[in-house]
User: Fold these one by one.
Assistant:
Number 1:
Amino acid sequence: MQFIFPGILGMTILFNSIFSSISIIWDKEFGLMKEILVAPISRFSIVIGKALSGTIISVIQAAMILLFFPFLGIKLSILSIPYTIAICFLLAFCISALGIILAAFFESMESFSAIMNFIVMPMFFLSGAMYPVKDLPDILRWITKVNPLTFGVDALKHSIFRNAIIADFPLIVDLSVLIISSIVFVAAAGFFFEKRK
């Protein structure tokens, strides 16, 4: 239970955050995106706004899951709760920005939904949410190291249980990867939106 629960939180954040970018496809289909893109504001502010909206929804749902901790026999210290929420926020923002990058290349709901299944499920199963990264074969272990969800789930293991034994990476590595990935994803999403006519 201790090992799986951070993975459940990570799964909740992954699905909610990446699918929040469906609103961009919706805006494209109904012509709202054209009006947004001609507004006299930076494209990066659009990306950050969309990412924050997906982040807030994901963090609220993750916080609701945290309410079930006592019923599962998992004890959380008072300090662990805001710490865990902060990591959920960082992970959700990172994944939301990734979803925005993907949404920039699609024009319809059908095409976006189809490709999401090929991205979301491998991200989840290769994140260390279900089994330790160190127990994977070498090739899969390398793939997990380019998956930002891996480091988000690992950071949640640190924050929830304060137990480095079940974690695969040092906490400072987890946080650094999430922060750097968020910056890169926002920059890339802003760049792709800048290229749109």
Note: The two ends are 49 Å apart (CA to CA).
Number 2:
Amino acid sequence: MPHPITLPRDVRLMNTLSVLLGLVFVAMVLAMGVAWLVRQPAFNLTAIRVGGDLMHNNAVTLRANVAPKLAGNFMTVDLEVTRAAFEAVPWVRRAVVQREFPNRLRVLLHEHKAVAYWGSEGDARLVSNAGEVFDANPGDVEAEELPLLDGPKGQAPLVLQTYLGLAPLFEEMDAVLEQLQLTQQGSWRVQLDSGAVIELGHGSLAEVQKRTRRFIDTVTQVASRFGRDVESADLRYASGYALKLRGVTTGEIGDKVDQKKKR
């Protein structure tokens, strides 16, 4: 039975090196082929199909904002860069970008749904129904009247949640909550459509709602007794509130308001 022949070490090394060189050559040929292929005119981007929410944007504005930021063709265009370019367009909250072989992109847009203004009066920022603050032209807002919310940076979701929890309470007294502010000290302040400013104090939404409920249940009776509208109120008392009526220099403070209710 013949015995296998063992090749010298230098021969084995040369054979291994030849195989490696052959693989490198094949890889280089493939790389050159791919590079040639992706540069072919057939892969030049010819269209970008945009769908989804297009209430505040059209082809003209999208082209003006996005096209200058795109580079490459169907094979080489950076989808993340493209997505970021679309999301930088006003009103666009999220963009999903996909390739459509052989030379198109498909983009699905999701727009912000504005439910309030954010910041000081005249500020161009808005708050979405997701509690996100975004920049947009206020003239593009469909709703004629939106509340004005304000608070420390990053607190928009909390302020929006509190607004949604308080607005229905003030509607019970035929008032519209026009402004809600969370101060830097963590205290809540509202302004009604009548111009009345009400200090709600600190605390959770449940605690603030409780104080607001106590105020709403008694303020109409107190105001009607004097025949005056509410100018301001301070609910930061443990068992009552301070009240200032238009044209009246003194108010009913703290326990006195609750005592009136009990009589």
Note: Confidence is low (pLDDT under 50) at residues 250-263.
